[in-house]
Amino acid sequence: MTISDLTATEALRRIRGGELSIEDYARQVIARAEKLAKLNVFITFDPEQFLEDARRADKAGGNRALCGLPIALKDNIDTKGYPTSGGTAALKGHRPAANAPAVQKLLDQGAIIAGKLNLHELAMGITSNNGVFGAVHNPYNPDMIPGGSSGGSAAAVAAGIVPVALGTDTGGSARIPGALCGVVGFRPTMDRYGNQGAVPISHTRDTIGTFAHTVEDVMLVDEAITAEKSLDALPDLHGVRLGVPRGYFYENLEPDVATAAEKTLDLLRAKGAVLVEADIPDVGPLDEAVSFPVVLYEFLPDLEKYLCKQGCEITVEELVAEIGSPDVKGLSLSLLGEGAMPEEAYRAAIEVHRPALQKAYADYFKAHDVAAVIFPTTPLTARPIGQDETVELNGEQVPTFGTFIRNTDPGSNAGLPGISLPVGLSSAGLPIGMELDGPDGSDRKLLQLAAAIQDVLEPMPAPKL
């Protein structure tokens, strides 16, 4: 078994059993990272610091839950030992004074940082085509996007460089790249991990999320951050009720995505799951009324507060002037000028539409007695790098951003937990994901359910690297 085959759980078992030293593991991670440098997953990778941390962990030993586990972090998550650039030029040398709280909890449990990962600039996009640090490449086809904004995080796990990576998720950035790179991507309930210690987009919607090959590994990280223990056993799928909202979530799918979705539903039905075909009322219009008004109103003020709190001697205007990605720069400049979101629209989104969206989900879960809803994570598979404005879907040019976030965005705006599971490859060999969204605060139950579903799915073929 090579480094690329190791899950976090298996690696920890070998470290505890004395079969694998942490330093040897780190050396294998370094070799793998250097071999696959063409994927451009890292912004900061310091082999000497990584090895020093590994040797220190070997000497310390102990029985901490994550002892010696290498975890790479999206480069908008604060770390005092590494720069945190947010993927933008103006913050290249930014060194936070403290680790993000979620990161500190992982380090306290023995994890070691393997480096900082590339992303869509300022996390404001879904292609991870970064105009400052270069595009991240999809391990299944380097000509394709890995998704975003946490593209480096998903690609690093999919390529077998690290077993676990952290990203962030505002409207789908932990689930979209998970789906497009063939790994598990988890967004927790809003505030479960906290949104402190990361370069912000929206304090209402931002959260740290997790990437891994298995749900078991995601649960390992979740437990280390929250101290919430797992249930004793995975649920029996027989009798589990799952909502299937055909309206909105299953509309205008790429044919291979539609086929994979139906195959997954048929498998779950054969295992005894009860599939409840029912739509979430007005989910599309409610999501639209919340999504952009919240993000576009909060983005620059939240970023300004972050810069001030961090003691960065730079203004928002100066940061925007140095943005290298045309899509992010154009949007940011418009928000500084006449394109700024009106406060009236923001207040309506926060006080009226978001509560209505949350109620629609809560009423749906209660009325239909379902543990989760299940749907394709994205309506389409990965598209070529460079198609940042529009992509082709079923013979039409459609907006890249809006199309990829269509299914992940509503649950994000409602603050719900969601997890994307890899369910197979398209005819072109590109990964396809299915998402489960659960009720508010149901994270551990959702993870247990996702683990039970992953157990009956066919193993995801590894990329040919």
Automatic annotation (TrEMBL):
This is Indoleacetamide hydrolase. It holds the Pfam family Amidase. The keyword Hydrolase applies. PANTHER family: GLUTAMYL-TRNA(GLN) AMIDOTRANSFERASE SUBUNIT A, TRANSAMIDASE. Residues 27-447 form the Amidase domain. One of its GO terms (molecular function) is hydrolase activity. InterPro entries: Amidase, Amidase_dom, AS_sf. It comes from the Bacteria. Keywords: Hydrolase.
